[in-house]
Structures are given as structure tokens and as C-alpha cells.
Design brief:
The complex is a heterodimer of chains A (about 80) and B (about 180). Chain A is built from 3 helices and no strands. With about 80 residues, chain A is mainly α. Chain A is elongated and about 60 Å long. Chain A starts with 9 loop residues before the first helix and ends with a helix. With about 180 residues, chain B is mainly alpha-helical. Chain B has 2 domains: about 150 residues; about 30 residues. The radius of gyration of chain B is 23 Å and the shape is elongated. In chain B, about 40% of the residues are buried. The chains are: A mainly alpha (about 80), B mainly alpha (about 180).
Chain lengths: ~80, ~180
């Protein structure tokens, strides 16, 4: 998850340029806003694809053996 | 954490996190084979390989990455909720791990179906791939990697409050020690 090769020490480094100045509450950085916007677009896109059925069924039933080898993967999963 | 312990924890965290990405790369190679091949032997081998990689390599590495990431965050001044890049890395890691754990039983079931010797290449091809999940997971892991390498600036409101509290506490301590020296 996180590579914290630098251990910030606000007491000695003044936050090493990673935060706001003393006494000013930080606003949300632009990169976080852009990241959030992209995340919302991706989530909405996935929701539309799943709900419209454009991408086919979602979940284990998507992977079922056809024809005479009909296997209910959901049942296999339940059976372990 | 002492510097030595922190360095060791960082080494473990880097090993399992980068290993997670590498293992997903190996998984995707097999996943592509399930999406493109019609050959029963290739498909059978691919599904069985995918299940083994997922269960015995990817899942343990994902859980280890999450755990060591929490240790690194809580054991250093970065904290879990103080910096945007740490918080977003945590959320993406949690999301990727949950999707992986939900997907693993399906991958196991694909391997069980592929192990059926009566299934033809056409049947096995119809099982489909898990490329959407594996490629999506890789994108999430690469985003986490970039955030961890570049550590983009930006403190959360919570982090700012904590920093101010620590500054005030330090000022109080400095003032009281200066008073004690004057006396």
C-alpha cells in the first residue's frame, strides 16, 4: 500500500513542503479533485454497463459451461 | 518505530507489494490465454494455473501488502488519514483486496470446471476470462505504486488538525523548559 521511505516530522521539517503553512487550513489539492472526478466517472460507467446488461451477466453465472456440460458455478462455489 | 525496524518493515512492505503486481502480471498472461485460445489443453492448464496463482500467491501477497501498509502508516508520522496520497492508497488497496477475495471462489470454480476431462476446448473457451477484473486490478495497483513513489503533496483536514495540536504541544513543552532553565 504505502512506501513510506520518508518519515515526515512536522515538528522539525515544517512538513517538508507537503502541507499548508501554519494556521491555514488546507484546501483539497487539485490532483485529489481530478482523481475523485475520474473515480466517479469510472464507477458510473461500470454501473451503467452492469445495469444495462451491455457487458453480459456479472458474477459467477458469467462463467458457466455450455450445452451438455452445464455446470452451475454458483453451486460449485457453494460446495467449495 | 526505531529506524532499523522501520527500514525492515519498509523492505517487507515493498517486497510483498511489488510481488503482488508481479503475480498479477503472471496471472494476466494466463487470463489472456483463456480469452484467446480454443485449445482444450491450453485452456485447462491456464485455468488451473490461474487458480493456483490467485489462491497461493496473489491473495497472500495482497493481505500481506495491506497489513504491512497499515503497520508502516501507523508506525510512522505519515499516519493513515493525514495525507491524501496515503488515504487514497489505503482505499484503493482495500478495494482491490475485497474484489480479489470476492473473485477468488469464481476462479476456483473455473479451475474445477476446467479439470473435467469431458469438457472440450469450445466448452472451456465459453467459460470466459476474468480479464476485466485482472486488468482493472493492475491499473489500481499501478496507481497505488505511482502515489507511493511520488507522494503528491496535500494534507487532509484531519492531518492539519493533528499537526497543529502537535505544534501547540511542542510550543508548550519548549516554553515550560525555557521557564525551568530561567529559574
Amino acid at each position: 500500500m504505502a512506501d513510506r521511505s520518508i518519515d515526515p516530522d512536522p515538528n522539525t521539517t515544517g512538513d517538508a513542503g507537503m502541507g499548508p503553512g501554519r494556521g491555514s487550513r488546507p484546501g483539497t489539492p487539485l490532483w485529489v479533485k481530478v482523481f475523485g472526478l475520474i473515480a466517479i466517472i469510472v464507477v458510473l460507467l461500470v454501473a451503467v454497463i452492469v445495469m444495462s446488461g451491455l457487458g453480459g451477466p456479472h458474477g459467477p453465472q458469467r462463467h458457466a459451461l455450455p450445452g451438455h456440460h452445464q455446470a452451475d458455478l454458483t453451486g460449485q462455489i457453494a460446495a467449495g | 518505530m526505531s529506524p532499523d525496524v522501520r527500514k525492515f518493515a519498509l523492505a517487507v512492505h515493498l517486497t510483498v507489494s511489488v510481488g503482488w503486481i508481479g503475480a498479477v502480471g503472471a496471472y494476466i498472461v494466463l487470463d489472456v490465454a483463456t480469452a484467446t485460445s480454443q485449445d482444450a489443453q491450453v485452456l485447462r492448464a491456464a485455468y488451473l494455473g490461474m487458480a493456483s496463482i490467485a489462491r497461493y500467491v496473489i491473495v497472500p501477497l495482497a493481505l500481506a501488502s495491506l497489513l504491512t501498509g497499515l503497520v508502516m502508516a501507523l508506525g510512522t508520522r505519515w499516519g493513515l488519514f493525514r495525507y491524501w496520497w496515503v488515504l487514497i492508497s489505503l482505499l484503493l488497496t482495500l478495494f482491490a483486496t475485497v474484489v480479489l477475495l470476492l473473485e477468488t471462489p469464481t476462479i476456483d470454480a473455473l479451475a474445477i470446471a476446467a479439470a473435467d476431462p469431458a469438457a472440450s476446448g469450445e466448452d472451456l473457451h465459453a467459460l470466459g476470462s476474468t480479464l476485466v477484473h485482472s486488468v482493472g486490478g493492475t491499473v489500481a495497483l499501478l496507481v497505488i505504486l505511482v502515489l507511493n513513489v511520488y507522494k503528491p503533496s496535500g494534507m487532509t483536514s484531519y492531518g492539519w488538525r493533528k499537526q497543529e495540536e502537535e505544534r501547540r504541544a511542542l510550543s508548550r513543552r519548549s516554553a515550560s523548559s525555557a521557564d525551568a532553565n530561567d529559574r
